[in-house]
Design a protein that fits this description.
GO terms for molecular function: DNA binding. This is Mobile mystery protein A. There is one protein chain. With 152 residues, this protein is an all-alpha fold. The chain folds into two domains: 78 residues, 434 Repressor (Amino-terminal Domain) (Orthogonal Bundle), CATH 1.10.260; 56 residues, no CATH class. The chain contains seven helices and no strands. α3 packs across α4. The chain is elongated, with a radius of gyration of 24 Å. The mean pLDDT is 90.
Length: 152
């Protein structure tokens, strides 16, 4: 098994664990504030644990709600709450394999379409079935080789 395929398989097993969380909405107040309130912790208490002012904690809560917070700040806040920050990426298509398949097919369609148009200009037009087959074959090749151009 080649190195790239092994890498993808290992990541895929981790990503599967995150997939169900895609459907969970974030609390409207943001996680920091929601957890702090659920624990019955005041702004001042969290501020003391973080070694900052309560205004700074309010800023953290606001930045997190707005999506403008750093991972470092979230990680430190999680630690202060005796929690752990967990994050990851989940492909929109559900799996890395499907993501790669989608990108490979898109590139294959562009390549085959270009070739097909050139042949049409030379009065050597292919049938739709032959074009479909060429796209399938090119998709397989692209998935195996995984050239960097797939992400352009």
């Amino acid at each position: 098994m080649d190195n790239k395929k092994l890498q993808i398989e290992q990541l895929e097993s981790r990503i599967k664990l995150f997939s169900p969380t895609r459907q969970l909405p974030n609390p409207p107040t943001g996680w920091v504030k929601a957890i702090r309130l659920a624990l019955g912790m005041s702004l001042q208490q969290l501020a003391n644990k973080l070694g900052m002012t309560k205004q700074s904690v309010q800023e953290i809560e606001t930045r997190e709600k707005e999506g403008a917070i750093t991972l470092k700040s979230l990680r430190e806040t999680a630690r202060a709450l005796d929690m752990e920050l967990v994050y990851g990426f989940v492909p929109k298509e559900g799996t890395l394999e499907k993501h790669i398949e989608s990108k490979a097919r898109s590139l294959a369609e562009k390549i085959v379409s270009r070739t097909s148009n050139t042949m049409k200009l030379e009065d050597q037009q292919n049938t739709n079935e032959r074009i479909k087959k060429a796209i399938e074959e090119r998709t397989l090749i692209i998935k195996q080789e995984l050239p960097k151009t797939i992400w352009d």
